[in-house]
């Protein structure tokens, strides 16, 4: 490893693979290393035997679960907004040629213990069982406003300044009731708690508009989400291929990879197996950087194997259910994510359901009870608690550009925002995602 690189990327999680792909496309000379023998890092998709071993269940998976090779179980389960940032990154980098997507069947929200379809348009608001007759009309007015809103066209603002008004004030303007506010804020805008209510309304209106635009992106789409066949582990592998096409070098099984610093504390390379590869800067997940990150929380996730669809979801092969914090007496939301054999992630007749939330107590597994109660009979269950880390600094002073951990949400918008921020910190450039139409060609709906 006597060559010198522009960047050495440590870890093959999705964020790191996207960054290495983007840098390679920008003609940076990239070396990508991982301590594991497989791609994906924390965001890998595992076989049943790998998951069984990781969770320490002992013995071997029972034959009733089906063939081991048919499982691709995501460690960080998330859906992709059909008109969102990740799709734009996929299009910008042409990574779509390596992937095949399938539409997600449904998006639901829990109200008073009942699972309800999430209304996202003016017409869906009129049909929703979540609201009474008069509230449906008020909600319809709000959705029409959001659908027509254009930030650069004052005529669509209807006299509302979303940069100065809080979201609570916008809700008050449309006279919306608490339950309507709850599903808009948590199931459409996908906020994880209610702190957004006191912030400028523009961000939330954009998020609701993104949900709507994703929902209408493809004909007959029943949710705003898409998902890759064979699991999310396909994403980091696709970006790894992209990096390699543009000259990037990959080295797996580097269990001893260690960042090397100069006398001024700046990263100048990575050492492994007695050799040091030099570089201008290092990018990676927090686990590769001692004392350069802080713990900001924990996520508890349950992976459940089912032999049936989740009840009350119209027999969906894939779905998201959001349990808003107030509905379950918490400070943060809970998420249910489900996919199945229809997505080539499980054997025929099997569904994989995940329940995740931000840890709030000393008994994380018990916190998942409201989400687990929605699943019906469970064949096998695996529970993991994962810490969330964030870097202390932006990386400009020590040449160490560190990604954040993955939150409990079941969508990729916050994940991609971290990638965009990383890219800007590294290159000094804003990642331009506006030049391409975000249409994924290989998508079945």
From TrEMBL:
GO cellular component, one term: cytoplasm
Positions of transmembrane segments: none
UniProt xrefs under Pfam families: GDI
Domain of life according to the entry: Eukaryota
GO biological process, one term: protein transport
GO molecular function, one term: Rab GDP-dissociation inhibitor activity
InterPro entries: FAD/NAD-bd_sf, GDP_dissociation_inhibitor, RabGDI
Family, as annotated: Belongs to the Rab GDI family.
Family annotation (PANTHER family): RAB GDP DISSOCIATION INHIBITOR, RAB GDP-DISSOCIATION INHIBITOR
Protein name per UniProt: Guanosine nucleotide diphosphate dissociation inhibitor
